[in-house]
Amino acid sequence: MVEPRELWKTVPDSPFPHEIAIDLNDTLNIAALDYVPNQLDSIAGNALLYNLFTSINGNDWLCVVDSGVWRDNTNLKTVRFMPVVARYVKLQILSSSRTSVSAADISLHGTLIKPENKVLNTIVPLVNEKISVLSIPSSGYISIKLNDFGMNDNVELSFYNAVGQNVYHYKMGTNRDMSFDGRQILKNEGVYILVVNTATGLYKKKFLFNQFNN
After folding, report:
1. CA pair distance 21, 84, nearest whole angstrom
2. N or C: which end of the chain has fewer CB within 10 A?
3. Measured distance CA(130)–CA(146) in Å, rounded
4. How confident is the model over 25-79, as pLDDT tens digits?
């Protein structure tokens, strides 16, 4: 769990949206955000309409991982979403109960990702039916679904390029659905191999990554 905390208040009467970007100082698997409005400020408002973005590099905010409307009160607001690999998180407020907005506490929940430098073992069996990998050219994201694995099994994912070099490693835990920004973790278009490491063995899936082009 990672919980960077900030007391945040925007300038009154400044045009919306009001935004705060948080640097987690490492790449993590983010799955939830807690927002608590300022309990004592009678001037700043409570966030109402919001968008939540993530980014690997702090410059590309191309995917809204969650959006919605919070009730106008000072209660804890929790946003849970499909886990996303990111280092930066941006909370964008589109409207509030006043002309400014505040936060007494912003907490982010996730798990740390540690990269590994490995060489692909060519004897890993190919098991297509267990792994679904979908490259989405319109967004540059990769959607991964694991089928027929034990729900309590911890799973690790490793991405290799066509010449067998490890380009990304991720501890998936017990989640079975995941999305990655392929432009950040793979960089280039082409053929890749996803290796799934479980308690019962290793499995691999070859897929083609198509990068988004404007």
Report:
1. 16
2. C
3. 6
4. 887 888 889 999 887 777 888 999 999 998 888 888 866 888 899 999 989 999 8
Question: pLDDT tens-digit profile of 83-100?
Answer: 787 889 999 999 999 999
The H-assigned helical ranges of the chain are 182-185
Task: Give the three-state DSSP class for 185.
Answer: helix
pLDDT score at 62:
65
Question: What is the identity of the amino acid at 169?
Answer: H
Query: Which tokens hold the place of 198?
Result: 């479980």
pLDDT at 152: 66
The two most distant CA atoms of the chain are separated, in Å, by: 65
- Structural domains of the chain, with CATH: 8-110 (2.60.120.260), 128-209 (2.60.40.3080)
Closest by CA position to 120, among listed 83, 82, 159, 155: 159
